[in-house]
Amino acid sequence: MDPAEFLSEHFDLSRRFFLKAGLSSLAATQISLAVADESSQSPPKKHVKPDKGGVRSNPYFTPTEDFRDVSRGKPLPHALPDDKKAEVGLTQESWRLEVVVDPDHPAKIGKPLTKADGTALDFEALLKLGESHAVRFAKVMTCLNLGCPLGMGLWEGVPLREVIWLTKPREDLRRVFYYGYHNDDPAQMFRSSLPIGRVLEDPFDLPPVILCYKLNGEWLDSERGGPVRIVVPEAYGFKSIKWLSHVVLTNLAHANDTYAEQNNDVDSPLKTFAATISVPKVVKVDEAITVSGYAQVGISGLSKVQVSIESSAVERPANDPHFNTASWVDAELLPAPMPWNALRDGKIPPQTHGFDAAGIPKSWPMRLTNAHWAAVLPGVPAGEYTFRCRTIDEHGHVQPMPRPFRKSGHAAIESVGITVTP
Q1: Comma-separated ranges of CATH 2.60.40.650 domains in the chain
Q2: What is the pTM of this model?
Q3: DSSP string, 64-85
Q4: What is the CATH topology of the domain spanning 66-262?
Q5: CB-CB contact of 291 with 375 (8 Å)
Q6: pLDDT tens digits for range 313-372
Q7: Residue 171 β-bridge partners
Q8: 271-421 adopts what CATH topology?
Q9: Residue 143: helix, strand or coil by DSSP?
């Protein structure tokens, strides 16, 4: 996600909050400085236009060209010439998906889908399935080992299970693994996997795992993994394989993800955590301190964001690594940033998971997405201070719990220094 884009949207939401608090001038100055700092490194895109108040208006859903890219491959598959893409199946016309059994741990199926026998699934057949089975849902795409989101998207496609049923599976099917085009180099293969139960059934009101061909209502482009990629709603990005070419049905009992080889927890879903966007570095004595940020809403939802400010001169308890004894206060969760400007006509399509018929979120914040927050802290005496923010999820777990370990996704509590001057 382009930092200037994300900050601009956040500025618009935060400004409204601070205006109600009677602190709009101070807040605007602080957040504008943050936007300016980021913009000096990442110039805003051409589509970013000021609204009537002079503030850049930006969409909740990230335009496809503004997603951060962490693609793998040498060369990057999306950077291949058009003729090479057509040759290797990276265009809608040439794409073919093979669905086969694992030769080492074979599942029993009745009809593999292969190029050799002409039964591999093509793009037209996938869209035909979409006429009766297509689903769409909002999801933040984020990396297991990064705190900053890569982008927020409205993803559309066909549930993976509909394609698996075409193979007429019978028994010994415990897991599905899948991979995409990797320059015909086995050393570059990047593979992910899921238990078959997650593919065939959607627990806890989650959307299904999909073969995705649209992002924000437009065809999925090559840089985002097109023509077809996997999208796993509750998972980190490494589960949502780009340039999909093979689905393998296996009797293997354990995960065989490439990411597991790099000491990652490959079965952890998205965590809930808070991060800052605007925190002043220097304020005057007794001056109100305006702070704001965003929260990633993980699988356990989000009930509140809390903030604290502590004097750096006070020694913290040695037995409180998660700052539970700090003086926490509730921040304000900001509303959904409608309209949905990145989408065609600014509207959520009908029958989108998590939205009502009018395109309004059924609940807010929505799981598996981002939300913005803001707070006003009272002024404090001169000195050095540390500001922190944290989330509490819908089950009452306080960040970084219930999963504080780094390899299952980012959840560390952010600490920011503030100097208060006379």
Answers
A1: 271-421
A2: 0.88
A3: GGGS------SS-GGGS-HHHH
A4: Sulfite Oxidase; Chain A, domain 2 (3.90.420)
A5: yes
A6: 999 999 999 999 999 999 999 998 887 877 877 889 999 999 999 999 999 999 999 999
A7: 108
A8: Immunoglobulin-like (2.60.40)
A9: coil
